[in-house]
Amino acid sequence: MADISDWNDTDTPPGVSSQVTFDSKSCMKLDTGANGTASREQDIGAFGARAVISLNMYFDAIGTIANADNYVMVFFNGSIRCLVQMGSDNVTVYDGAAHQVVGNFVVQDVWQEWTFDIDWTGQTVDIYLDTVLKASNVDCSAASATADGTIYLTQAGATTANRITYIDWFKAGSDFISGGGLQSYSEDTIVEQGTYSLKGIAAITDSLDKTLTKTLDPVIDLSGLNTIEFYAYASRTGSNFKLGFHDSGGTTTEHTVNISSASAWEKQTVDISGVADGDKDAIDSIIVTIVDADVANTFYLDDIATSLIILAYSEDTIKEQGDYSLKVNATITDSLNETLTRTVSPTIDLSGMSMIKFDARSSRTGTNFKIGIHDAGGTTTEHTVNIASINVWQEESWDISGVADGNKDAIDQIKITVTNADSANTLYIDNLATPLIILAYSENTIKEQGDYSLKVFAEQTDSLNETLTRTVDPTIDLSGKKKIAFDAYASRIGINFKLSIHDSGAGAGTTSEYSVNIASSNVWQKESWNISSVADGDKDRIDQIKITVTDADSDNTIYVDDLATALVLQSYSEDTIKQQGDYSLRAFAEQTDSLDETLTRTVDPMIDLSDLNTIKFEARTSGAGSIFKVSIHDSGSGITTEHEVDTASTNTWQTESWDISDVLNAQKSTIDQIKLTITNADSDNTIYVDNMISTTKY
Predict the structure, then answer these.
(1) With 70 as the cut, is the pLDDT of residue 670 above it?
(2) Which residue spans of the chain are classified as CATH 2.60.120.200?
(3) Which fold has domain 572-694?
(4) Contact residues for 404 (Cβ-Cβ < 8 A; gap 6+)
């Protein structure tokens, strides 16, 4: 920044903002002096629906946010502000109610390039550090009427003197801008397979020799492999960028990409047969380098693979059930005896199981691959797949009844091995299960609420008395709760399965059970499980939820969703009925039993409402009148301040204005909890709360 005269000086003495040369760069220097504030402000003109702002900064002496010795940026669009705090302890974004922690990314005494991609419509921001995405969709919905296009750059020093930050350059626009000329992010429109590709934008001239680095953790072992394949797409033809594969031992193997046709996917093959195994057995990063920047270039990379896919990916088009199948490409000759290994953590106990079932599909017929399960004790059990028809799903039944329980009670790996590589082969695996699904999966089509339900398939005969166990960590305290409500759906009517909750009390613990009676097949029904007779000591540490098959005369597909107590215990976000942003808070209060029940949300970090007079929020209920109250708890004083909500009209959003002006600052300076309490339970009620803010000024 060779000239900062277009930035208004808003320093608080003895803080000083000035133009200096630092580290051979023309910079804006922000120096707080003895506990002052160094600040500059500029109106750069109205933003559109999106703003992308990049800065190159050097924190020469940065302090903590906790001590107000941090760096602050604020971007305004006339109705909201995106307020970012950066300190040695954290990076935060203000959402109008609290400073949300993004992560501890600030490093002192090094140049850091920061980019903020702001969606003013969605009121969210994506944050990049040195071209790497660090946080996405961070709420920045704090209201402000400050003029559209206004920007503040501030270094504070409230506690420690001489806090100093240098800014090399500042750029703003409606798309990615980088001082180094090179930027990257995920692309969901131009893709070769799957959901995303990697998109890079290389600026003319400035991007030359710049690099994008993707760190791989854990490292990848390419020992014994001869080829890496990937797809490339670019707006320029010719050799303009290269890919490098860096081994932790220090060797980088590079491939220059030659694009023959602009704006079209082209397959690239990298021959690594001449690279010693010791130079490719621990690949820890993939590096993109710009080798020609005579013209700006936009490029995409997708589907990086070796002879047998090492970087395995999910397939969302060719699948048997759910969202994805596992896809593997096996090349001719080189893939023979190659193995793809998936680690299973935590391990799976198949003791007592007699069968594994899965769906397989392949571009070749015959016995060309096998699947193995590895037990932590050292035993691998294998099944060879015989494909009857190409490109058609077939069900595989794998008999494991002859495998001793001790050799299948701690399955820690699932392996796919190529046994015939006379021709190239593309294969898919989906829906891996035991008679009662052990590898339980989420279902996004048949559901009662939210994004997913739990789906369980129980096979005829063999699934009888089989149990699916879900561990609850941390444990749930149901003391004082009278009912558990949930939704159930099954392909069979009658009493065919039961739910149970296990309490981790003394000895073996206590299990409480509930049998589900399905009235109509393939229809959701609401279940109400009375646990009022269960002693509090037998339900105050629930550590497991179980589904057990009690009748297996026929196959059965079971779904369970929306498990809750009288007032939702495991509260969830609502993405349909909302007032702003992506979600509102939804609570269901059951008639009678929910009276005086309280839902508590912990606030971390705590919120300081000192000198603030009003809390505003949006409320909506299915019943009119005074049905619930909202309260804030102060950890310092122990005081709880309450506000009764009186709903005027059912199923209609209304704005609540909560006067806290008469609450002492000492009773609202460390707010650590927000609570919702049912005060009237004459009828069932569904409650929504959204957009809670306090009146504040930056």
Answers:
(1) yes
(2) 8-173
(3) Jelly Rolls (2.60.120)
(4) none
Dig out the tokens for 218 from the structure. 């854990």
Q: Cα(677)–Cα(315) distance, rounded to whole angstroms?
A: 45
pLDDT band for 437, please (50, 70, 90 cuts). very low
- Where does residue 368 rank: exposed (0-12), middle (13-18), buried (19+ CB within 10 A)? buried
Rg (the chain; Cα; Å):
30
Measure the CA–CA gap between 330 and 368, rounded to whole angstroms. 10
Superfamily of domain 182-306: Galactose-binding domain-like (2.60.120.260)
Structure tokens at 492: 């069979």
Residue 666 φ/ψ, nearest 5 degrees: -70, -15
Distance CA 527, CA 563 (A): 9
Q: d(Cα 177, Cα 172) in Å, to the nearest integer? A: 7
| 344 DSSP 8-state letter | E
In angstroms, the Cα distances linking 612 to 91, 199, 608, 662 are 24, 45, 9, 10
Give the whole-angstrom CA distance, residue 38 versus residue 10. 7
Q: Which CATH architecture has domain 319-433?
A: Sandwich (2.60)
Report the side by side order of strands in the sheet with 453-458.
441-443, 453-458, 556-565, 483-490, 525-530
**What are the tens digits of pLDDT across the range 139-168?**
999 999 999 999 999 999 999 999 999 999
Mean pLDDT value across residues 177-198:
70
**For the whole model, what pTM was predicted?**
0.34
**Strand runs (DSSP E) across 80-163, as ranges?**
80-86, 91-94, 99-103, 111-119, 124-129, 132-139, 142-143, 150-156
CA distances from 141 to 123, 259, 581 (A): 5, 43, 8
116 vs 185: which has the higher pLDDT: 116
Domain with CATH 2.60.120.260 in the chain: 182-306, 319-433, 441-565, 572-694
Q: What's the CATH fold of domain 8-173? A: Jelly Rolls (2.60.120)
Q: Rounded to an integer, what distance in angstroms lies between the CA atom of residue 204 and that of residue 18?
A: 31
- Between CA 542 and CA 563 the distance in angstroms is 14
Pairing verdict, β 164-173 and 25-31:
antiparallel
Cβ(263)–Cβ(371) under 8 Å?
Answer: no
CATH topology of domain 441-565: Jelly Rolls (2.60.120)
